[in-house]
């Protein structure tokens, strides 16, 4: 077996910075809604994109989005703004990876910057056969990484409760076609 196909031993831990992703874009007229602000669905799509890259950088295997735990729209993002997405792994479980995404808007005329949105997503690392794969633990280093990491266990417990409640609700919902 050559070096490229040799299975690598996963490290026991990694630093949050190793998973950091930055992506900056502009807001164009076709990106806005009827309020002339960035369409929320477009923002959410890019959030998932950058978060999935952070998750894969962390575990170096495929990941699936398990949940978009929160997307908090804090300020409107306008066509005069650029949008910078910054993501990093903030917590890990045995096979799950929580990613924090910070969205900063910048008025391109004034240079004023603000945190316009924040988001937490959870991914599960998966092997080629689709089974969950173990992931390295995470070590936060910066004050911001530590701040985000401090409340991760609480968010994990809330995710478990929400998932249990969602499964219970789904089991009681009809799948019958409305016209039948």
From TrEMBL:
Annotated TM spans: none
Listed Pfam families: 4HBT (PF03061)
InterPro entries xrefs: Cytosol_ACT, HOTDOG_ACOT, HotDog_dom_sf, Thioestr_dom
Residue ranges occupied by any HotDog ACOT-type domain in the UniProt entry: 17-129
Keywords tagged on the record: Hydrolase
UniProt entry tagged with the keyword Hydrolase: yes
Protein family (similarity comment): Belongs to the acyl coenzyme A hydrolase family.
PANTHER family cross-referenced by the UniProt entry: ACYL COENZYME A THIOESTER HYDROLASE (PTHR11049), CYTOSOLIC ACYL COENZYME A THIOESTER HYDROLASE (PTHR11049:SF24)
Protein name as it appears in the record: Acyl-CoA thioesterase
Species, as recorded: Paenibacillus borealis
Origin organism lineage: Bacteria, Bacillati, Bacillota, Bacilli, Bacillales
